[in-house]
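User:
Care to share a sequence and structure tokens?

Assistant:
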Amino acid sequence: MKKYLSRVALAALVVAFASETVAEEWNVSLWGKRRAFTEHVERLAELVSEKTGGEFTLNISYGGLSKNRENLDGISIGAFEMAQFCAGYHRDKNPSITVLELPFLGVSSLEQEIELSMAVYKHPAAIEDLGRWNATLLMPSPLPQYNVVGVGDAPSTLADFKGLSVRATGGIGAAMATVGAVPTSMSASEVRQAMDSGVVKAVAFAPHAHMSFGTIEKATWWTENLNPGTVNCPVVVNTDALNGLSDAHREALLGSVEESLDHYVTNYNGATMDAWGPALEERGIERVTFTDEEIAAFKEAAAAPAATDWLEQNKAAGLPAQELYDLVTGMIAGDS
């Protein structure tokens, strides 16, 4: 009898141990708060849990694991398994994907932004580039064209941007500099305080971020059609952690990316953009529209020089820069 019970106890321990090893928990480092920009990650967590019966969970943290500018570093050392970051925060760490942040590329939709991003993410140069940080590119966080909100007198022409301090990162910052603005790079969570203190007088964001980070609470004007470009903010996973997943859990994760992005796009094009117009009207924010001639001149002054600089810098760094640039611009031309 004792021998039988000992066998039963041993079997129970084996089952318990097996159950414990099957369970998988990943920590996910985001920042700010839940918003349109993070809806694909939230949906991904739901889908992964559903598909695995709760055996694989993504624990999402908004700022509790790392600063947003340090998320890629955290991924590299395995401090957490998944994270979101923006390429323009540290262009030297991820030069391959900054091709997607060049100004005036002509991207017209979130769907097109996803298509371009995924093509670049799958390019061997991007895989190798992010591989230096033990990171695998999982999916983008597609954003519409940026526009600027500001305080004080609204600009009536592009010349009025001269000397204006603007929070603008990556290619958007380079574009704003061509019209005399003074671009300043800072993380989204720092922007409202910078506006309140007068460090910056204007901020370039996508609509969701203007609402989420409170810039429209301070602003008096908004540029309706400047559209200089957007930023690229991928979600990455620690490569070792990805490789360590069981086949079933890996499939649950990778097989949920497309549906998560579909959810993101539906939410952004729907609820987020539906709220944007009323948010401006409620606060009496003036909408500034520039002439077609001014926008064309802005594009001419910003687009080609920025592309040339990007190509030269990244060729010198050993990247197949022309190949990446041709990939992106070729896809855009093919869609037009």
Remarks:
- The longest strand covers residues 24-30.
- The radius of gyration is 23 Å.
- The chain is about 50% helix and 15% strand.
